[in-house]
Amino acid sequence: xxxxxxxxxxxxxxxxxxxxxxxxxxxxxxxxxxxxxxxxxxxxxxxxxxxxxxxxxxxxxxxxxxxxxxxxxxxxxxxxxxxxxxxxxxxxxxxxxxxxxxxxxxxxxxxxxxxxxxxxxxxxxxxxxxxxxxxxxxxxxxxxxxxxxxxxxxxxxxxxxxxxxxxxxxxxxxxxxxxxxxxxxxxxxxxxxxxxxxxxxxxxxxxxxxxxxxxxxxxxxxxxxxxxxxxxxxxxxxxxxxxxxxxxxxxxxxxxxxxxxxxxxxxxxxxxxxxxxxxxxxxxxxxxxxxxxxxxxxxxxxxxxxxxxxxxxxxxxxxxxxxxxxxxxxxxxxxxxxxxxxxxxxxxxxxxxxxxxxxxxxxxxxxxxxxxxxxxxxxxxxxxxxxxxxxxxxxxxxxxxxxxxxxxxxxxxxxxxxxxxxxxxxxxxxxxxxxxxxxxxxxxxxxxxxxxxxxxxxxxxxxxxxxxxxxxxxxxxxxxxxxxxxxxxxxxxxxxxxxxxxxxxxxxxxxxxxxxxxxxxxxxxxxxxxxxxxxxxxxxxxxxxxxxxxxxxxxxxxxxxxxxxxxxxxxxxxx
Length: 575
Known about the structure:
The chain is an alpha+beta fold. Strands 3, 7, 8, 9, 10, 11, 12, 21, 22 and 25 form a ten-stranded mixed sheet that branches. Strands 28, 29, 30, 31, 32 and 33 form a six-stranded mixed sheet that branches. A five-stranded mixed sheet has the order 16-14-15-17-20. A hairpin with a 5-residue loop joins strand 5 and strand 6 (104-107). The radius of gyration is 29 Å and the shape is globular.
């Protein structure tokens, strides 16, 4: 039984002073969560109910595709992470500690190492494959900038799933099953969402997708063509055709142009009366660990109206990349602000959008202070490699369709890991001929807390939360007006009992207090349907009803006689 008089639901009239995201504000105000420290949050009863409703949907969909539930420790030997290389590669976000025996340990932010280690000890033959395992477990991440309530935290619960196959064909089949399962999870949760191509990041592997819930508080940008029907990708990996820029005809050779004090693209464009997109800006970087480029300075050229995406640049150059410092630039190329490819003693790479812009003359730095070169032609005047490293911008096109860019919350991701973890952790099997092969793996994550927060971001109004009915902490709130012990309170008790017996998850506001404060709390908490029992409606043998989404009041209310049937019919209309 759930009565507000016996429920811990500390609602607040004002949001926390540091709360910027709507979900942060409303989840605290509605009494769903409380903060313990930076990036550390406790889920209070109503919030935990919403969280666990999401968990229930995810569990059902995982079991529907045959994945089996397990549980693995958060505290893990560091040796496993050292063998995969992630102990050093991840950096400060990984919690590292020592036990009383001085052994290195980690607090896991994900469980590829743990799961693969178990499978390496269990699987022997191709007959043991394929299979899939999943668990819900706490994750720890030493997040440098916790923010936005439960969206960016240092401790959180994730659903991890892993698939194990003998070959890539098996992985692809399982990957598609998980894509379908994830679509059902987000649809059932009531979210607006996109599946987008994404970078594999620290997880490694061959291919990845992210699941994004569009909202203003999103920390990722999603590139969409036709609302995602034509194209959808995280801006970190997105590619598109650039907006056109007209280039002047090229002279027979580059022409020196005096350009005093024009160290920026904006100043140079104004000085030459050219659009920024007709100028090439130089971006010198230092690359290390690349097979394609020897360690050292590389000069990137891109259109003056474009920006670099660091993730794309590192992947394109095949190593670790940092911006070159001033001494490195002067020693290898020329004075900062006037850099160009002609005469530079470094490899030159050109962003693909430069080539896609078409033929004609470009303006580049002359590697001399206060001098640029006009009339420069790609290939004729300098050699280069082509890379795709720029950030797509709104108005670019994919297959002729203009793209838009929306902020979004990442609510899940899936990865084709291939043998990224099975090889270093010796997870192998014997085939029919007795030959040893590394197990081919996939990894699939969902954050229940992020789904909850994304739902609040997407579905709220000035009065509070308007939950999707599948994940609301309570489906119906019954508000009894009038004095405790009075006719209205007694009728509210009967309504509460009847709706519970009909199978609804009901919250009864049986507290003493005025109608104004009770209704304000009900709108703040946001149960999808509210039934209000007051003196006036009760005299007519009816109760008031409101669908929370859109604050739709049901004209004439609902009859007390046969109320559960009327509510069941109305429930079909509730989003």
